[in-house]
Amino acid sequence: MALCDRIIGNGVGAKAVVAITGLMLTGFVMAHLSGNLLVFAGPEAFNKYAAGLKSLGGILWVARLGLLGIFILHLGLAIRLNLENKAARPQKYVNEATMEATFASRYMVQTGLLLFAFIIYHLAHYTFRVASDDVNAVPAEDVYGMVIAGFSNPIVSGFYVLAMAALAMHLKHGVSSAFQSLGIYHPNLNVVTQKLGPIIAAIVFVGFASIPVSVLMGCIK
Question: Taking the CB of the first residue and of the last residue of the chain, which one, N or C, has fewer CB atoms within 10 A?
């Protein structure tokens, strides 16, 4: 416990933990996307994938709780670092256009909080099935049907697309800056890491947003 306090108790250590947890969550997002895209393969393939996850039983819930813990640690430390930075520089810039920060980097905490709200809703929507009567009407084993029922509502689909836009903006800055926070710095490597964030952000947004959009357009039914 004392070692953990020393690591996250200073700015450098906290930034490293934020970077590591962020990269771990990015890995999960990419894996989750690859599974979700099976919805385009049809109900049999997608329901088989979902049944395989459910067959893990307690292991699946341990993984879910572990990911939630990692996310809370990531968000909590990021908020703390943000508050410490503001306290160290209490006076705002006279002209924000002169700031050497991108729009995405300035709103990392805000997009993180929006994603936290989205995760709660997402779990309530499809895991606990308490956020939509349309989803509740579909048998629990028909996850494909639940996806269709849920995203047939334009408001729900719009919120999911908005959340994915926030996630993409978060990843665009977060993935690239994580390497710098970990001290992984080299002129040749920077060319790759600076492009990695935008590339992953684009893949994640297009991949996840394509599902509710395809349902609304009738491409998946």
Answer: N
The SS3 assignment for 92 reads coil
pTM of the model: 0.85
Integer-rounded Cα radius of gyration of the chain: 19
* pLDDT attached to residue 87: 80
Q: What average pLDDT does range 35-40 have in this prediction? A: 96
As a whole-number percent, the residues of the chain with pLDDT over 70 amount to 90
Q: Which is nearest to 38 in space by CA: 27, 29, 49?
A: 49
Each as own residue / partner, the long-range contacts of residues 110-114 (CB below 8 Å, 24 or more positions apart, any chain) are 111/166, 111/167, 111/169, 111/170, 112/74, 112/75, 112/78, 112/79, 112/170, 113/75, 114/163, 114/166
